[in-house]
Amino acid sequence: MKRTTQLFTLTTAILATIVITMIVSPADANKRYSIETGDIAFVDVFNLIDKALLVEDMATARAEFNTKSTEALAELKEQISQLEIQLNTMQPDDPNGAAVYQQYQAFSGQLQNASQQISASYQTLIAQQITKGYREIYAAANEIGAQEGFAFVFATRADGELIQTDTITGITQEILARPLMTPPNGTDLTELVRVKLGYPEKAPEPVVEDEVTTETTTQTDAQATAPEAVTPAVEVPVTEDE
Fold first, then answer.
1. Which residue blocks in the chain are alpha helix, DSSP H?
2. What is the CB neighbour count within 10 angstroms for residue 133?
3. Is residue 14 part of a domain?
4. How confident is the model over 130-161, as pLDDT tens digits?
5. How many structural domains are present in the chain?
């Protein structure tokens, strides 16, 4: 076979292969990789974690932690208060002034260290509760997704309304929690997961006691406005306005 004929035959074979690839490959690709709308659902994981933290046993655990923390710091605060009174009533030339001031500094340091430890422990408690909630949500979402016939369940929010916009961490979380295209309402499994896990829809309303006497009311108001002994510095991922 002449060289010219060989080149022509080779060129023809290559062109035929390209044409076949252009015709067959797109159809095959669509068949293998396309996803129908009904195959996809979504779950608002952040919303459900908020609900998980409202469950009675989790709320009780946090309340008990705060009560124990307040009691643990009460003695130190009382000692510091007594030393402050003593320092304020001492004369500048009192020979015991330096010793009392050293005690004051020592107790203040103990209070600061104890507060930091309590704050760290509280964050650990919250992290453990979120972890437990996520595991429950993950399992329930998979189960419900399979029952409803969905092939994929994404963790996302259903709208573009940003809630936490005051901090970089908050706004970043809000953005990452949302898709750029809003999914259809019929693919939202969030409520089904919430009901399955028995999470409350919203936080319980605070109990308001009836006013009996002026003395009782005054005492209640004072307790309500008194600052807590411990306010753990932790950002709980609450992203829903209840």
1. 3-33, 45-52, 56-89, 97-147, 168-176, 190-197, 214-225
2. 21
3. no
4. 999 999 999 999 999 999 888 888 888 777 77
5. 1
